[in-house]
Amino acid sequence: MLHTSIDFTQPGKQQGFLQVPYSHNLGGWANVMIPVTTVANGKGPTVLVLGGNHGDEYQGQVAAMKLARLLTPDMVTGRIILIPSLNFPAARAATRLSPLDGMNMNRAFPGEPEGCVTSQVAHFLTTVLFPMSDVVIDIHSGGRSMEFVPCSHMHLVPNIDQRRQMLAAMLAWGTDFSFLYADIAGTGLLPVEAENQGKLVVTTELGGGECIPANVHRIAQDGLRNVLIHVGLLRGVVQTRESLGKPPTILTQALNREDYLLAPESGIFEICVDLGGAVVKGDIVGYIHHLERPDRDPEPIVAQSSGYLITIRAPCLTQQGDCVAVIAKQVSLDEVMKS
User: Fold this and answer.
1) Which of 38, 120, 129, 313 could form a disulfide with 324 if both were Cys (CB 3.0 to 4.6 A apart)?
2) 224 Cβ contact list (under 8 Å, min separation 6)
């Protein structure tokens, strides 16, 4: 069963590990050791910051590591818990899924106390860290599989007060786009477990790929800090897009299966629309070229709805059934808050 030497009730700064028992061919009494930092000072919210839910998504890992080094108790009102590389085996291997058990951390909840490594970590969050937290921030990007317009995002939770708080925190990230999304690839998501416990949950999709531009790192780090100020954890003045001289965030949603375009055949994917560009239903957004039969006309990928191209597949080589693009339609704040 997972063990940690961190005492989450104590004030001050602590750095340690979540230790998960794991035996391998050259280690009978080995542990997977997941770094964790907590900084606590006085009364205030408890904020759990997670990077590396998928190991090949680095923006959040870097942002959380930098905060873990920077923060001192006098900078905090309340308590922050930072786990930069939640799926630590995957982060070390630069993979989406854990190489130890093949599991997707973001499909492992609520987890099992005596399960495999990924399941034990999920269970610890479900039963220990989520209950003590007021805010859960889970920083994602597209990893090696997808390239996103950098955006903060959230689910449309049924509780209106919770939704209002999540919407305000999502917008505090300050991205050009914000994105309301649906789950078309299964259950067991980390954000859903935290939402079901009534937490204010903020998530992101900040670009993608293994080469991360400096501006995307800035979006990750500046946005995270602004959200922490917004929820009252860090001292400071909240920056708004208006105060920075920027236009309002473009609020989008993709809640229907037809918004998620899947490859009908395997081949080489060609995107024909710029990321973040406007798309009209019926537009061709890309093609699948037939690797073995270049004499055949490519298979068109046709938009089934109108909106913005919010993400595209990153690797050109594509298998049948892979998601190659997502079209998200623009919505208003009033539409988001409708019950």
Assistant:
1) 313
2) 49, 63, 64, 67, 137, 139, 173
